[in-house]
Specification:
Chain lengths: ~250, ~200
Amino acid sequence: MLTKRIIPCLDIRDGRTVKGVNFENIRDAGDPVELGALYAREGADELVFLDITATIEKRKTLRELVNRIAHHINIPFTVGGGISSVEDVSVLLQNGADKISVNTSAYKRPLLVKELAREFGSQCVVLAIDTRQEADGEWYVYLNGGRTPTGRKTTEWAKEAVDLGAGEILLTSMNHDGTKSGFALDITKKLSVSLPVPIIASGGGGTMEHFSAVFQDGHADAALAASIFHFKEIAIPELKGYLQKQKIPVRI
Amino acid sequence: MSIVIVKYNAGNIQSVLYALDRIGIQAVVTDDHEQILSADKVIFPGVGEASTAMKYLEERNLDKLIRDLRQPVLGICLGMQLMCRYSEENDTACLGIFEEEVKKFTPSESQVAGGIKVPQIGWNTIYDLRTDLFKGLGDQSYCYFVHGYYAALGEHTIATTDYVQPYSSGLHRGNFYGVQFHPEKSAAAGERILTNFCQVIDK
């Protein structure tokens, strides 16, 4: 049976992990390769490496880091942050990335999604959406790491991007991100049941119950989190054991 | 032991090279006919679309070359599908090494309502494992899959996976082996399979 995926996300700046991490059993927790390899050993199903400075500073690729990750990590990984052209993606894939994620650049020029899908296949094109629920109850798309509102409904943009060839959606709820109060179940479910591609839910995971809820009630195909893994508030083996007890299919 | 990875217009070729490097196995990526013919083992990887890949192989006479290889050959993902007789993906005649046909996943309405999506992306189990390719692996080992088309079950099936319906996640005929999943991304299980292909399989 196809399993639900648990995906740690590593934020990267200048080739180093950004958020403080708290691990005794690796030499250098600031090294994305070492931290990623630890997560892979613990049973992470995939990894996401996000260059959080890229969109603002227009810094291009993490070519060298991606190459090093690809040499050391034996599970699939996605690279995102500041990717805006077929050429950017070509370099990252040639250096061993399995998938890339696009966000602001794809919103500004939706044909990018089509070009990437045609050139490399939908399976490696992840559309990242930062979304916020406004006072009217609707979920809207935000750009530039959540700083720029677009006024466009998340459901509309997600559908357009999938029609253009996006193979997965990485949906981050700004209302929930960092709160540890649980994932955004309603918008996750809305996208998951209406779109033919997997939905990766992100933002708000704080307890193991939150993960079972996003799979069972939110119909997510995968769940992504960062600091709860980095700070060992939740260990991946424990989380997967818990999910298995809840009858959620996971790889153990 | 010389191991060659066939270079063609499909993605993920570097990933296979890196995966072999992680387990201490040297390989060369090439489309040179002589180098492929003289290798001890040949890996035929790939992520992409069937008809453009076949066209590319035919233009370089790699289709005939691969079909006539005598040493152990391992097709991965699209590579395995191209080793079948025919693919529904853009109505493509393939290499015909395996009799099995490649079809598009077509989930029923109730399966779609139950959350089955196409392509399949993620970790699924392989079972009913046969041949030394899977030596040392437990039945129901998890491997990483990304695909929208599948090879049906048939006489050459050596591994089975359930998605929409049971299908061939591994095929074998003579010196030819194929796996639908990505051993290069399948953690320890995948490393075991690559090691078996490179070091255990001898014909």
